[in-house]
Design a protein that fits this description.
By secondary structure, this protein is of the alpha/beta class. The chain has one domain (about 1-250): Rossmann fold, CATH 3.40.50. Helices cover about 45% and strands about 15% of the residues. It contains nine helices and seven strands; from the N terminus they run βαβαβαβαβαβααβαα. A seven-stranded parallel beta sheet has the order 3-2-1-4-5-6-7, with helices on both faces. Helix 1 links the parallel strand 1 and strand 2 (about 30-35). The longest helix has 22 residues, at about 100-120. The mean pLDDT is about 100. Bound molecules: NADP nicotinamide-adenine-dinucleotide phosphate.
Length: about 260
């Protein structure tokens, strides 16, 4: 049975970095790259056409991931790694976003992640790993990044509980919680809203995040936080009152 990795959000940023890293894994014979941008996926796949396979899919549309399930079934594969990196945020208050924008963020960041896990788990065996990309934003409610932060809190909780549920089957689930990363995310999050973050503290490249996440997954950790600032923030969020942390966020972004 061919051993594969499945990566959503593979056309850009952190997902693309996971494609690069997993190409070095000897037990991964093929990598399935998922995103909506065919051109970007094709350009990446051209680097290694025998191992990189593209699947153009909008993971936010209900039912689309079923098609991936059918492809997995037909291909007789074992999923060694599932990386759910597809996701986005939108800056602004509840009224700066349309109902459709708010719902779509939930469809992709929450429902898409759950559906991908449920679709791939039947094809995963002992020693397989799921990496779900949450965020440091999952640790505290964030006014003016409200829905995004809430979706990432879901991903973190869901992943850690799923890790326990899958322990007996020898499959690890890691919630990856990056701080700000220099990817397409920030430009894509802009809505022109008055209250948009302008301070991207300790922004980092995605390569370190991906490397640590993969290391953490391999040793069976259910959580991966890269960098000193995110680790301190994560620790603070465990002990400080959430109201204080929300005020701190508002002050940091000069919303107060
Ligand atoms: N950058 C940050 O500051 C930061 C911080 C913490 C967490 N994160 C999380 O990290 C993950 C990766 O984001 P990134 O920073 O790498 O941003 P990015 O460069 O914008 O990458 C996002 C990826 O998701 C894909 N995508 C978006 N909508 C999709 C959809 N409906 N269906 C399938 N694929 C879709 C995009 O490809 P297409 O457009 O081609 O579909 C792209 O490959 C996200 O879950 C994000 O929430 C980012």
């Amino acid at each position: 049975m061919k051993q594969i990795a499945v990566i959503t959000g593979a056309s850009s940023g952190l997902g693309k970095e996971f494609v690069r890293l997993l190409q070095n894994e000897r037990d991964v014979q093929e990598i399935w790259l998922i995103a909506r941008s065919k051109d970007k996926l094709d350009a990446i796949a051209r680097q290694d056409p025998h191992r990189l396979k593209t699947v153009v899919l909008d993971c936010s549309v209900h039912g689309n991931i079923e098609k991936l399930g059918e492809m997995l079934k037909a291909a007789h594969v074992s999923v060694r790694y599932l990386v759910n990196s597809a996701g986005y945020g939108k800056f602004g208050s509840f009224c700066d976003l349309s109902a459709e924008q708010s719902r779509n963020m939930i469809d992709l960041n929450v429902s898409g992640v759950v559906e991908m896990c449920l679709t791939c788990i039947p094809y995963m065996h002992r020693g397989s790993h799921i990496l779900n990309i949450a965020s440091l934003a999952s640790t505290v409610p964030l006014p003016y990044l409200n829905i995004y932060a809430a979706t990432k809190a879901f991903v973190r909780h869901y992943s850690r509980a799923l890790h326990v549920e899958l322990r007996d089957r020898g499959i690890s689930v890691t919630a990856v919680c990056p701080g700000w990363m220099d990817t397409g995310f920030i430009a894509n999050a802009q809505t022109g809203a008055k209250k948009s973050p302008t301070v991207f503290a300790a922004i980092t490249k995605p390569d370190g995040v991906a490397k640590k996440a993969l290391r953490d997954a391999k040793i069976g950790k259910d959580l991966s936080v890269y960098g000193v600032f995110p680790q301190l923030t994560y620790a603070a969020a465990k002990i400080l009152p959430q109201k204080f942390l929300m005020e701190n966020w508002l002050r940091m972004q000069k919303y107060r």
